[in-house]
Amino acid sequence: MIDQNIVSREMQHQLQHPQHMHHQQQQQDGNNSAVGMNMGLDLDEDGDSEDDVKRVNMMNNSFEESRLSTADAIQNFIVPEGFVADYVPNWTKNRSVIFDCGVKATQPSTGKTLWFCLCSAQCQGKSAKGIGIAIKGAVTNCTNHLRDIHKIISPRSVKMIRRKPDGTSALPGENEQSPTSGSTPSSNYKKRPHSVLASGAGQYADNNMNLNHNNNNHNGQNYPMMNLPQQQHQHHQHQQLQQHQQLQHNPATSSSSTVAQGLNESWMQHFAKNQNVKYQVLAAPGMEAMAMTIANLNPARFMYHKTSWGKFPDGTDNIMLGGFQPVNRIAGENVLLLAAFTNNATTLTQFLVMVTLLQSFIESLTVVLPFYPVGTMERISREGQVATASTYAQMFSNLPNCGKPTRLVIYDLHTLQNRFYLHGNAIASLQTTVPLLIERMRTTHINCIAFPDDGSLKRFGYLFHNLGFEMVICGKTKDGDKPQVSIQDGQPFGKHVLVIDDLAQTGNTMFQAGMACKAAGAASVSAFVAHAVFPNSSWRSFLPDGVLYGCFERFFVTNSVPNVTDLLPAHSVFEVLDLSRKIIDDLDRFT
Fold first, then answer.
1. Which residues pair with residue 116 across a beta bridge?
2. Beta bridge mates, 410
3. Residue 137: left if φ>0, alpha if ψ -120 to 50, beta else—which one?
4. Of 38, 55, 90, 48, whose CA–CA distance to 194 is shortest?
5. Collapsing DSSP states into helix, strand and coil, what is residue 487?
6. What is the pLDDT of residues 155-203, one digit of tens each?
7. d(CA 331, CA 52)
8. Which of 367, 358, 215, 218 is CA-nearest to residue 291?
9. Which of 76, 82, 66 is nearest to 130 (CA)?
10. What pTM value is reported for the model?
11. What is the Cα 227 distance to its own chain's centre?
12. φ, ψ for residue 58 (rounded to 5)?
Protein backbone atom coordinates (compact mmCIF):
# COMPACT_ATOMS: atom_id res chain seq x y z
CA MET A 1 0.00 0.00 0.00
CA ILE A 2 1.08 3.60 -0.48
CA ASP A 3 0.81 4.46 3.22
CA GLN A 4 -1.01 2.79 6.05
CA ASN A 5 -2.61 6.14 6.82
CA ILE A 6 -4.11 6.46 3.32
CA VAL A 7 -7.56 4.88 3.54
CA SER A 8 -9.80 4.31 0.53
CA ARG A 9 -13.45 5.21 0.37
CA GLU A 10 -14.18 1.49 0.46
CA MET A 11 -13.71 1.92 4.24
CA GLN A 12 -17.17 3.47 4.36
CA HIS A 13 -18.57 0.40 2.60
CA GLN A 14 -16.78 -1.84 5.10
CA LEU A 15 -18.36 0.03 7.99
CA GLN A 16 -21.81 -0.65 6.54
CA HIS A 17 -21.10 -4.21 5.29
CA PRO A 18 -18.58 -5.86 7.63
CA GLN A 19 -19.32 -9.27 6.09
CA HIS A 20 -17.43 -8.19 2.93
CA MET A 21 -14.25 -7.17 4.77
CA HIS A 22 -12.58 -10.60 4.64
CA HIS A 23 -13.24 -10.99 0.92
CA GLN A 24 -11.96 -7.47 0.24
CA GLN A 25 -8.79 -8.13 2.24
CA GLN A 26 -7.98 -11.05 -0.05
CA GLN A 27 -8.20 -8.71 -3.06
CA GLN A 28 -6.15 -5.91 -1.46
CA ASP A 29 -2.75 -6.92 -2.90
CA GLY A 30 -4.14 -6.89 -6.42
CA ASN A 31 -5.79 -3.51 -5.89
CA ASN A 32 -2.61 -1.88 -4.55
CA SER A 33 -0.79 -1.87 -7.85
CA ALA A 34 -3.89 -0.53 -9.65
CA VAL A 35 -4.17 2.34 -7.19
CA GLY A 36 -0.48 3.06 -7.60
CA MET A 37 -0.77 3.19 -11.39
CA ASN A 38 -3.72 5.58 -11.14
CA MET A 39 -1.68 7.88 -8.91
CA GLY A 40 1.27 7.78 -11.27
CA LEU A 41 3.51 6.21 -8.61
CA ASP A 42 6.06 3.53 -9.45
CA LEU A 43 5.17 0.56 -7.24
CA ASP A 44 7.26 -2.54 -7.07
CA GLU A 45 5.96 -6.09 -6.91
CA ASP A 46 5.22 -5.81 -3.19
CA GLY A 47 3.03 -2.73 -3.75
CA ASP A 48 5.47 -0.41 -1.97
CA SER A 49 7.72 2.24 -3.42
CA GLU A 50 10.11 3.65 -0.82
CA ASP A 51 10.60 6.95 -2.67
CA ASP A 52 6.88 7.54 -3.14
CA VAL A 53 6.06 6.60 0.44
CA LYS A 54 8.60 9.22 1.57
CA ARG A 55 7.01 11.81 -0.72
CA VAL A 56 3.51 11.16 0.60
CA ASN A 57 4.84 11.30 4.16
CA MET A 58 6.57 14.61 3.40
CA MET A 59 3.26 15.98 2.17
CA ASN A 60 1.49 14.83 5.34
CA ASN A 61 4.19 16.26 7.60
CA SER A 62 4.30 19.59 5.73
CA PHE A 63 0.57 19.98 6.10
CA GLU A 64 0.55 18.88 9.76
CA GLU A 65 3.33 21.31 10.77
CA SER A 66 1.49 24.19 9.13
CA ARG A 67 -1.84 23.23 10.72
CA LEU A 68 -0.36 23.10 14.21
CA SER A 69 1.37 26.46 13.74
CA THR A 70 -1.86 28.17 12.65
CA ALA A 71 -4.22 26.60 15.23
CA ASP A 72 -3.90 29.48 17.71
CA ALA A 73 -4.16 32.10 14.95
CA ILE A 74 -7.40 30.51 13.69
CA GLN A 75 -8.88 30.30 17.17
CA ASN A 76 -8.10 33.95 17.98
CA PHE A 77 -8.91 35.37 14.56
CA ILE A 78 -11.50 38.15 14.62
CA VAL A 79 -13.74 37.92 11.58
CA PRO A 80 -13.75 41.29 9.71
CA GLU A 81 -16.80 43.43 10.27
CA GLY A 82 -19.71 42.51 8.04
CA PHE A 83 -18.55 38.90 7.55
CA VAL A 84 -19.84 35.69 9.17
CA ALA A 85 -17.47 32.75 9.70
CA ASP A 86 -18.31 29.56 7.79
CA TYR A 87 -16.75 26.68 9.73
CA VAL A 88 -16.66 23.19 8.23
CA PRO A 89 -15.95 20.48 10.87
CA ASN A 90 -13.13 18.02 10.53
CA TRP A 91 -15.46 15.03 10.16
CA THR A 92 -17.02 16.36 6.93
CA LYS A 93 -15.74 14.16 4.14
CA ASN A 94 -15.44 17.10 1.73
CA ARG A 95 -13.53 19.25 4.20
CA SER A 96 -10.75 21.22 2.52
CA VAL A 97 -7.25 22.06 3.68
CA ILE A 98 -8.22 25.73 3.70
CA PHE A 99 -10.14 25.25 6.97
CA ASP A 100 -6.94 24.10 8.70
CA CYS A 101 -4.88 26.99 7.40
CA GLY A 102 -7.32 29.88 7.52
CA VAL A 103 -10.91 31.04 7.94
CA LYS A 104 -13.66 31.10 5.35
CA ALA A 105 -16.27 33.85 5.83
CA THR A 106 -19.31 35.13 3.96
CA GLN A 107 -20.59 38.70 3.70
CA PRO A 108 -24.42 38.32 3.97
CA SER A 109 -25.10 41.76 2.48
CA THR A 110 -23.36 40.95 -0.81
CA GLY A 111 -23.14 37.15 -0.79
CA LYS A 112 -19.36 37.44 -1.34
CA THR A 113 -17.24 34.66 0.18
CA LEU A 114 -13.58 35.16 1.07
CA TRP A 115 -10.89 32.98 2.57
CA PHE A 116 -8.45 34.60 5.02
CA CYS A 117 -5.07 32.83 5.12
CA LEU A 118 -3.32 32.66 8.50
CA CYS A 119 -0.20 30.65 7.58
CA SER A 120 2.26 33.51 8.00
CA ALA A 121 2.54 36.87 9.72
CA GLN A 122 2.18 38.64 6.37
CA CYS A 123 -1.03 36.75 5.52
CA GLN A 124 -2.38 37.31 9.03
CA GLY A 125 -1.85 41.04 8.66
CA LYS A 126 -3.72 41.12 5.36
CA SER A 127 -6.55 38.99 6.75
CA ALA A 128 -6.95 41.27 9.75
CA LYS A 129 -7.55 44.15 7.30
CA GLY A 130 -10.24 42.14 5.49
CA ILE A 131 -8.03 41.30 2.51
CA GLY A 132 -8.84 37.73 1.49
CA ILE A 133 -8.97 35.39 -1.49
CA ALA A 134 -12.27 35.22 -3.35
CA ILE A 135 -14.07 31.88 -3.46
CA LYS A 136 -16.56 31.28 -6.26
CA GLY A 137 -18.00 27.81 -5.81
CA ALA A 138 -14.58 26.16 -5.34
CA VAL A 139 -11.44 26.48 -3.29
CA THR A 140 -8.92 26.17 -6.13
CA ASN A 141 -7.57 29.71 -5.66
CA CYS A 142 -6.98 29.02 -1.97
CA THR A 143 -5.23 25.67 -2.41
CA ASN A 144 -3.07 27.19 -5.16
CA HIS A 145 -2.11 29.97 -2.74
CA LEU A 146 -1.08 27.40 -0.11
CA ARG A 147 0.89 25.41 -2.67
CA ASP A 148 2.68 28.32 -4.36
CA ILE A 149 3.23 30.70 -1.42
CA HIS A 150 3.51 28.42 1.61
CA LYS A 151 4.61 25.17 -0.09
CA ILE A 152 1.75 23.24 1.53
CA ILE A 153 0.04 20.29 -0.13
CA SER A 154 -2.64 18.26 1.65
CA PRO A 155 -3.31 14.81 0.12
CA ARG A 156 -6.82 15.17 1.50
CA SER A 157 -7.80 18.11 -0.66
CA VAL A 158 -5.32 18.47 -3.55
CA LYS A 159 -6.14 16.10 -6.39
CA MET A 160 -3.26 17.13 -8.70
CA ILE A 161 0.42 16.23 -8.11
CA ARG A 162 3.18 17.99 -10.07
CA ARG A 163 5.19 15.57 -12.22
CA LYS A 164 8.94 15.66 -12.86
CA PRO A 165 10.27 15.15 -16.40
CA ASP A 166 11.18 11.58 -15.51
CA GLY A 167 7.58 10.83 -14.52
CA THR A 168 8.02 10.76 -10.74
CA SER A 169 5.98 12.93 -8.38
CA ALA A 170 7.35 16.26 -7.16
CA LEU A 171 6.52 18.48 -4.22
CA PRO A 172 6.59 22.30 -4.37
CA GLY A 173 10.17 23.52 -4.46
CA GLU A 174 11.59 20.22 -5.81
CA ASN A 175 12.93 21.45 -9.18
CA GLU A 176 9.45 21.91 -10.59
CA GLN A 177 9.18 22.57 -14.32
CA SER A 178 6.49 24.93 -15.45
CA PRO A 179 4.35 23.69 -18.31
CA THR A 180 5.61 25.01 -21.63
CA SER A 181 3.43 26.39 -24.36
CA GLY A 182 3.83 23.19 -26.30
CA SER A 183 2.86 20.88 -23.48
CA THR A 184 -0.59 19.93 -22.34
CA PRO A 185 -1.68 20.04 -18.70
CA SER A 186 -1.98 16.28 -18.65
CA SER A 187 1.71 15.87 -19.47
CA ASN A 188 2.76 17.76 -16.37
CA TYR A 189 0.00 16.74 -13.96
CA LYS A 190 -1.66 13.49 -13.08
CA LYS A 191 -4.89 13.26 -11.16
CA ARG A 192 -5.20 11.46 -7.88
CA PRO A 193 -7.98 8.86 -8.06
CA HIS A 194 -11.22 9.85 -6.33
CA SER A 195 -11.22 6.50 -4.51
CA VAL A 196 -8.19 7.47 -2.43
CA LEU A 197 -8.49 9.73 0.62
CA ALA A 198 -5.68 10.75 2.93
CA SER A 199 -6.70 10.56 6.57
CA GLY A 200 -3.19 10.96 7.92
CA ALA A 201 -3.27 14.73 8.28
CA GLY A 202 -7.00 15.28 8.26
CA GLN A 203 -7.78 13.19 11.32
CA TYR A 204 -5.90 15.61 13.55
CA ALA A 205 -7.87 18.70 12.51
CA ASP A 206 -8.60 20.99 15.41
CA ASN A 207 -12.17 20.84 16.73
CA ASN A 208 -11.72 24.01 18.75
CA MET A 209 -12.59 26.44 15.95
CA ASN A 210 -14.51 28.72 18.32
CA LEU A 211 -14.37 32.04 16.47
CA ASN A 212 -15.36 34.96 18.69
CA HIS A 213 -16.34 38.32 17.20
CA ASN A 214 -15.34 40.10 20.40
CA ASN A 215 -12.22 38.00 21.11
CA ASN A 216 -13.56 37.58 24.65
CA ASN A 217 -12.09 34.60 26.50
CA HIS A 218 -14.40 35.03 29.49
CA ASN A 219 -12.06 34.77 32.44
CA GLY A 220 -9.33 33.26 30.30
CA GLN A 221 -11.21 30.02 29.62
CA ASN A 222 -11.87 28.49 26.22
CA TYR A 223 -14.76 26.16 25.66
CA PRO A 224 -14.06 24.02 22.57
CA MET A 225 -16.84 22.29 20.71
CA MET A 226 -15.56 18.87 21.79
CA ASN A 227 -16.14 19.95 25.43
CA LEU A 228 -12.41 19.56 26.30
CA PRO A 229 -10.32 22.18 28.14
CA GLN A 230 -7.83 23.82 25.79
CA GLN A 231 -4.69 22.35 27.38
CA GLN A 232 -6.20 18.88 27.49
CA HIS A 233 -7.28 19.24 23.85
CA GLN A 234 -3.77 20.22 22.74
CA HIS A 235 -2.28 17.31 24.70
CA HIS A 236 -4.74 14.93 23.04
CA GLN A 237 -3.78 16.42 19.67
CA HIS A 238 -0.06 15.86 20.38
CA GLN A 239 -0.69 12.22 21.36
CA GLN A 240 -2.55 11.61 18.09
CA LEU A 241 0.31 13.12 16.09
CA GLN A 242 2.82 10.86 17.87
CA GLN A 243 0.68 7.81 17.09
CA HIS A 244 0.49 8.91 13.46
CA GLN A 245 4.29 9.23 13.21
CA GLN A 246 4.78 5.82 14.86
CA LEU A 247 2.48 4.23 12.30
CA GLN A 248 4.47 5.86 9.48
CA HIS A 249 7.80 4.44 10.70
CA ASN A 250 6.57 1.03 11.84
CA PRO A 251 6.43 -1.31 8.85
CA ALA A 252 5.27 -4.15 11.11
CA THR A 253 1.94 -2.46 11.80
CA SER A 254 -0.74 -4.70 10.35
CA SER A 255 -3.55 -3.58 8.08
CA SER A 256 -6.05 -4.90 10.64
CA SER A 257 -4.92 -2.28 13.19
CA THR A 258 -5.42 0.44 10.57
CA VAL A 259 -8.94 -0.84 9.88
CA ALA A 260 -9.70 -0.93 13.61
CA GLN A 261 -8.44 2.63 14.00
CA GLY A 262 -10.58 3.71 11.07
CA LEU A 263 -13.66 2.06 12.58
CA ASN A 264 -13.07 3.75 15.92
CA GLU A 265 -12.60 7.17 14.31
CA SER A 266 -15.73 6.66 12.23
CA TRP A 267 -17.85 6.00 15.32
CA MET A 268 -16.33 8.98 17.15
CA GLN A 269 -17.23 11.18 14.21
CA HIS A 270 -20.73 9.72 14.14
CA PHE A 271 -21.37 10.41 17.83
CA ALA A 272 -19.94 13.93 17.51
CA LYS A 273 -22.34 14.94 14.73
CA ASN A 274 -24.65 16.74 17.18
CA GLN A 275 -21.88 19.25 17.88
CA ASN A 276 -22.19 20.50 14.31
CA VAL A 277 -25.92 21.33 14.35
CA LYS A 278 -26.47 24.96 13.39
CA TYR A 279 -29.29 27.04 14.91
CA GLN A 280 -31.17 30.18 13.95
CA VAL A 281 -31.71 31.92 17.31
CA LEU A 282 -34.71 33.99 18.39
CA ALA A 283 -35.24 35.45 21.85
CA ALA A 284 -38.23 36.46 23.96
CA PRO A 285 -38.28 39.87 25.68
CA GLY A 286 -35.56 39.89 28.32
CA MET A 287 -33.60 37.02 26.74
CA GLU A 288 -31.93 39.06 23.98
CA ALA A 289 -28.66 39.50 25.89
CA MET A 290 -28.32 35.75 26.43
CA ALA A 291 -29.08 35.10 22.75
CA MET A 292 -26.36 37.52 21.64
CA THR A 293 -23.89 35.94 24.09
CA ILE A 294 -24.57 32.47 22.68
CA ALA A 295 -24.14 33.74 19.11
CA ASN A 296 -20.85 35.45 20.01
CA LEU A 297 -19.52 32.39 21.84
CA ASN A 298 -19.97 30.22 18.75
CA PRO A 299 -20.86 32.24 15.62
CA ALA A 300 -20.21 29.21 13.43
CA ARG A 301 -23.22 27.43 14.93
CA PHE A 302 -25.59 30.15 16.17
CA MET A 303 -27.02 33.08 14.20
CA TYR A 304 -29.16 35.50 16.21
CA HIS A 305 -32.09 37.36 14.65
CA LYS A 306 -33.62 40.28 16.53
CA THR A 307 -37.42 40.23 16.93
CA SER A 308 -39.73 43.22 17.34
CA TRP A 309 -42.24 42.63 20.16
CA GLY A 310 -44.63 45.53 19.50
CA LYS A 311 -48.23 46.25 20.46
CA PHE A 312 -51.12 47.75 18.52
CA PRO A 313 -52.99 50.66 20.10
CA ASP A 314 -55.68 48.26 21.36
CA GLY A 315 -53.06 46.23 23.25
CA THR A 316 -52.92 43.20 20.96
CA ASP A 317 -49.59 41.83 19.74
CA ASN A 318 -47.75 43.32 16.77
CA ILE A 319 -44.81 40.93 16.43
CA MET A 320 -42.25 40.87 13.62
CA LEU A 321 -40.02 37.82 13.90
CA GLY A 322 -36.38 38.20 12.96
CA GLY A 323 -34.80 36.09 10.25
CA PHE A 324 -37.66 36.30 7.73
CA GLN A 325 -36.78 39.58 5.98
CA PRO A 326 -35.26 40.54 3.59
CA VAL A 327 -34.30 36.89 3.02
CA ASN A 328 -35.97 33.98 4.79
CA ARG A 329 -33.24 32.42 6.95
CA ILE A 330 -35.70 30.40 9.06
CA ALA A 331 -37.34 27.94 6.63
CA GLY A 332 -35.61 24.57 6.57
CA GLU A 333 -33.46 25.44 9.60
CA ASN A 334 -33.12 24.27 13.20
CA VAL A 335 -34.60 27.08 15.31
CA LEU A 336 -33.66 27.86 18.91
CA LEU A 337 -36.12 30.02 20.87
CA LEU A 338 -34.94 31.40 24.21
CA ALA A 339 -38.17 31.81 26.18
CA ALA A 340 -39.04 33.56 29.44
CA PHE A 341 -42.51 33.21 30.96
CA THR A 342 -42.29 36.30 33.16
CA ASN A 343 -46.05 36.94 33.18
CA ASN A 344 -49.23 35.67 31.54
CA ALA A 345 -49.17 38.28 28.77
CA THR A 346 -45.64 37.49 27.57
CA THR A 347 -46.33 33.75 27.93
CA LEU A 348 -49.27 33.85 25.52
CA THR A 349 -47.23 36.00 23.12
CA GLN A 350 -44.48 33.39 23.02
CA PHE A 351 -46.95 30.58 22.35
CA LEU A 352 -48.15 32.59 19.33
CA VAL A 353 -44.55 32.76 18.11
CA MET A 354 -44.04 29.00 18.56
CA VAL A 355 -47.12 28.25 16.46
CA THR A 356 -45.92 30.61 13.71
CA LEU A 357 -42.43 29.10 13.65
CA LEU A 358 -43.73 25.52 13.50
CA GLN A 359 -45.85 26.47 10.49
CA SER A 360 -42.89 28.08 8.68
CA PHE A 361 -41.36 24.87 7.25
CA ILE A 362 -38.57 24.70 9.84
CA GLU A 363 -36.47 21.59 10.40
CA SER A 364 -36.91 21.56 14.20
CA LEU A 365 -37.83 23.78 17.14
CA THR A 366 -35.97 23.81 20.44
CA VAL A 367 -37.45 25.98 23.18
CA VAL A 368 -35.08 26.78 26.04
CA LEU A 369 -37.20 27.86 29.00
CA PRO A 370 -34.65 28.01 31.84
CA PHE A 371 -37.27 28.64 34.55
CA TYR A 372 -40.64 26.86 34.38
CA PRO A 373 -42.69 29.20 36.59
CA VAL A 374 -45.71 26.93 37.06
CA GLY A 375 -43.60 23.98 38.25
CA THR A 376 -44.84 24.47 41.82
CA MET A 377 -48.51 24.31 40.77
CA GLU A 378 -48.74 20.70 39.63
CA ARG A 379 -51.58 19.63 41.94
CA ILE A 380 -54.68 21.08 43.62
CA SER A 381 -55.99 20.86 47.18
CA ARG A 382 -59.53 22.09 46.48
CA GLU A 383 -61.99 21.39 43.68
CA GLY A 384 -62.07 24.22 41.16
CA GLN A 385 -58.44 25.20 41.65
CA VAL A 386 -56.44 25.31 38.40
CA ALA A 387 -53.26 23.21 38.17
CA THR A 388 -51.44 25.54 35.80
CA ALA A 389 -48.54 23.10 35.34
CA SER A 390 -51.00 20.72 33.66
CA THR A 391 -52.61 23.38 31.46
CA TYR A 392 -49.25 24.72 30.28
CA ALA A 393 -48.21 21.15 29.44
CA GLN A 394 -51.35 20.70 27.34
CA MET A 395 -50.61 23.90 25.44
CA PHE A 396 -47.08 22.68 24.66
CA SER A 397 -48.32 19.22 23.73
CA ASN A 398 -50.82 20.59 21.19
CA LEU A 399 -48.39 22.77 19.27
CA PRO A 400 -48.23 22.10 15.50
CA ASN A 401 -45.89 19.35 14.37
CA CYS A 402 -43.00 20.27 12.05
CA GLY A 403 -42.09 16.62 11.52
CA LYS A 404 -40.57 16.02 14.94
CA PRO A 405 -41.59 16.98 18.51
CA THR A 406 -40.73 20.36 19.96
CA ARG A 407 -37.90 19.98 22.45
CA LEU A 408 -38.52 21.89 25.69
CA VAL A 409 -35.30 22.45 27.68
CA ILE A 410 -35.90 23.28 31.36
CA TYR A 411 -33.39 23.74 34.19
CA ASP A 412 -33.92 22.38 37.72
CA LEU A 413 -37.65 21.70 37.40
CA HIS A 414 -39.26 21.98 40.85
CA THR A 415 -41.33 18.79 40.57
CA LEU A 416 -39.88 16.18 38.22
CA GLN A 417 -43.25 14.56 37.47
CA ASN A 418 -44.14 17.63 35.43
CA ARG A 419 -42.14 16.20 32.54
CA PHE A 420 -44.72 13.42 32.14
CA TYR A 421 -47.56 15.93 31.68
CA LEU A 422 -46.11 16.61 28.20
CA HIS A 423 -47.18 14.32 25.38
CA GLY A 424 -47.62 14.25 21.63
CA ASN A 425 -45.83 17.17 20.01
CA ALA A 426 -43.55 18.25 22.88
CA ILE A 427 -40.92 16.41 24.91
CA ALA A 428 -39.18 17.74 28.02
CA SER A 429 -35.38 17.84 28.14
CA LEU A 430 -34.52 18.34 31.82
CA GLN A 431 -31.14 19.86 32.69
CA THR A 432 -29.48 21.15 35.85
CA THR A 433 -27.41 24.20 36.72
CA VAL A 434 -25.36 22.33 39.35
CA PRO A 435 -22.30 21.67 37.07
CA LEU A 436 -22.08 25.43 36.58
CA LEU A 437 -22.19 25.89 40.36
CA ILE A 438 -19.56 23.19 41.02
CA GLU A 439 -17.20 24.84 38.52
CA ARG A 440 -17.53 28.11 40.47
CA MET A 441 -17.18 26.37 43.85
CA ARG A 442 -13.79 24.96 42.83
CA THR A 443 -12.45 28.52 43.02
CA THR A 444 -13.78 29.08 46.57
CA HIS A 445 -13.14 27.59 50.01
CA ILE A 446 -16.60 25.93 50.19
CA ASN A 447 -16.30 22.35 51.46
CA CYS A 448 -19.78 21.56 52.81
CA ILE A 449 -23.25 21.38 51.20
CA ALA A 450 -26.40 22.05 53.26
CA PHE A 451 -29.90 21.11 52.08
CA PRO A 452 -32.62 23.25 53.71
CA ASP A 453 -35.31 20.56 53.39
CA ASP A 454 -35.93 17.03 52.17
CA GLY A 455 -37.02 18.22 48.74
CA SER A 456 -33.70 19.92 48.14
CA LEU A 457 -31.83 16.77 49.20
CA LYS A 458 -33.80 14.59 46.76
CA ARG A 459 -33.35 17.10 43.96
CA PHE A 460 -29.62 17.82 44.30
CA GLY A 461 -28.05 15.36 46.75
CA TYR A 462 -26.96 12.75 44.20
CA LEU A 463 -25.11 15.37 42.16
CA PHE A 464 -22.60 15.92 44.99
CA HIS A 465 -21.82 12.29 45.76
CA ASN A 466 -18.12 11.36 45.68
CA LEU A 467 -17.04 14.99 45.23
CA GLY A 468 -15.55 15.30 48.71
CA PHE A 469 -18.12 17.70 50.19
CA GLU A 470 -19.49 17.27 53.71
CA MET A 471 -23.30 16.90 53.69
CA VAL A 472 -25.64 18.66 56.11
CA ILE A 473 -29.36 17.88 56.02
CA CYS A 474 -31.88 20.30 57.50
CA GLY A 475 -35.59 19.93 58.06
CA LYS A 476 -38.59 22.04 58.95
CA THR A 477 -40.20 21.81 62.36
CA LYS A 478 -42.95 23.89 63.94
CA ASP A 479 -42.56 26.12 66.95
CA GLY A 480 -46.23 26.78 67.58
CA ASP A 481 -47.59 28.15 64.33
CA LYS A 482 -44.18 29.33 63.13
CA PRO A 483 -42.06 26.89 61.05
CA GLN A 484 -38.40 26.56 62.01
CA VAL A 485 -35.44 25.01 60.18
CA SER A 486 -33.00 22.89 62.16
CA ILE A 487 -30.10 20.54 61.41
CA GLN A 488 -31.17 16.89 61.33
CA ASP A 489 -27.98 15.24 60.08
CA GLY A 490 -24.37 16.28 59.43
CA GLN A 491 -21.82 18.44 61.20
CA PRO A 492 -21.05 21.91 59.78
CA PHE A 493 -18.62 22.88 62.56
CA GLY A 494 -15.56 24.61 61.11
CA LYS A 495 -16.83 24.13 57.55
CA HIS A 496 -17.45 26.61 54.78
CA VAL A 497 -21.08 25.82 54.00
CA LEU A 498 -23.20 26.37 50.87
CA VAL A 499 -26.98 26.18 51.30
CA ILE A 500 -28.58 25.04 48.03
CA ASP A 501 -32.14 25.02 46.67
CA ASP A 502 -33.87 25.25 43.30
CA LEU A 503 -35.61 28.61 43.74
CA ALA A 504 -36.08 31.46 46.16
CA GLN A 505 -39.25 33.47 46.74
CA THR A 506 -38.66 35.35 50.00
CA GLY A 507 -35.46 33.41 50.79
CA ASN A 508 -36.59 32.88 54.40
CA THR A 509 -36.08 29.09 54.37
CA MET A 510 -32.55 29.51 53.00
CA PHE A 511 -31.87 32.15 55.65
CA GLN A 512 -33.01 29.90 58.53
CA ALA A 513 -30.90 26.97 57.26
CA GLY A 514 -27.88 29.27 57.04
CA MET A 515 -28.41 30.60 60.56
CA ALA A 516 -28.72 27.03 61.87
CA CYS A 517 -25.34 26.18 60.32
CA LYS A 518 -23.77 29.30 61.81
CA ALA A 519 -25.17 28.39 65.24
CA ALA A 520 -23.56 24.95 64.85
CA GLY A 521 -20.12 26.50 64.31
CA ALA A 522 -19.83 26.89 60.53
CA ALA A 523 -16.82 29.02 59.54
CA SER A 524 -18.84 30.73 56.78
CA VAL A 525 -22.15 30.28 54.97
CA SER A 526 -23.05 31.03 51.34
CA ALA A 527 -26.16 30.23 49.32
CA PHE A 528 -27.18 29.15 45.81
CA VAL A 529 -30.52 29.01 44.01
CA ALA A 530 -30.96 28.13 40.35
CA HIS A 531 -33.90 30.49 39.95
CA ALA A 532 -33.91 33.90 41.63
CA VAL A 533 -37.68 34.48 41.56
CA PHE A 534 -37.77 37.05 44.40
CA PRO A 535 -41.25 38.54 43.75
CA ASN A 536 -41.81 42.14 44.78
CA SER A 537 -38.03 42.71 44.93
CA SER A 538 -37.70 40.50 48.02
CA TRP A 539 -33.99 40.16 47.19
CA ARG A 540 -33.50 43.53 48.87
CA SER A 541 -33.79 41.74 52.24
CA PHE A 542 -30.25 40.41 51.74
CA LEU A 543 -28.69 43.83 51.16
CA PRO A 544 -27.00 45.73 54.04
CA ASP A 545 -30.22 47.51 54.99
CA GLY A 546 -32.37 44.34 54.76
CA VAL A 547 -33.74 42.16 57.57
CA LEU A 548 -31.93 39.03 56.29
CA TYR A 549 -28.54 40.69 55.77
CA GLY A 550 -25.43 39.23 57.39
CA CYS A 551 -26.14 35.51 57.07
CA PHE A 552 -24.56 34.78 53.68
CA GLU A 553 -21.03 35.59 52.57
CA ARG A 554 -22.05 35.07 48.92
CA PHE A 555 -25.44 34.42 47.32
CA PHE A 556 -25.03 32.68 43.94
CA VAL A 557 -27.87 32.70 41.39
CA THR A 558 -28.16 32.05 37.65
CA ASN A 559 -29.68 34.38 35.07
CA SER A 560 -32.62 32.02 34.41
CA VAL A 561 -34.96 34.85 35.48
CA PRO A 562 -33.28 37.80 33.73
CA ASN A 563 -35.95 40.38 34.59
CA VAL A 564 -34.89 39.89 38.25
CA THR A 565 -31.16 39.23 38.01
CA ASP A 566 -30.67 42.27 35.75
CA LEU A 567 -31.74 44.38 38.75
CA LEU A 568 -29.35 42.84 41.29
CA PRO A 569 -26.72 45.41 42.25
CA ALA A 570 -23.13 44.76 41.29
CA HIS A 571 -20.53 44.33 44.04
CA SER A 572 -23.18 43.09 46.47
CA VAL A 573 -23.73 39.74 48.18
CA PHE A 574 -25.25 38.44 44.91
CA GLU A 575 -23.23 36.84 42.11
CA VAL A 576 -24.96 35.88 38.85
CA LEU A 577 -23.71 32.79 36.98
CA ASP A 578 -24.32 33.00 33.23
CA LEU A 579 -26.15 30.02 31.67
CA SER A 580 -25.07 30.70 28.08
CA ARG A 581 -22.21 28.19 27.87
CA LYS A 582 -24.23 25.57 29.74
CA ILE A 583 -27.08 25.91 27.25
CA ILE A 584 -24.70 25.36 24.31
CA ASP A 585 -23.34 22.20 25.95
CA ASP A 586 -26.78 20.85 26.86
CA LEU A 587 -28.16 21.31 23.35
CA ASP A 588 -25.83 18.52 22.20
CA ARG A 589 -26.68 16.02 24.93
CA PHE A 590 -30.33 15.27 24.14
CA THR A 591 -31.10 14.16 27.70
1. 103
2. 430
3. left
4. 38
5. strand
6. 444 334 444 445 444 444 444 444 433 434 333 333 333 332 233 333 3
7. 50
8. 367
9. 82
10. 0.58
11. 7
12. -60, -40
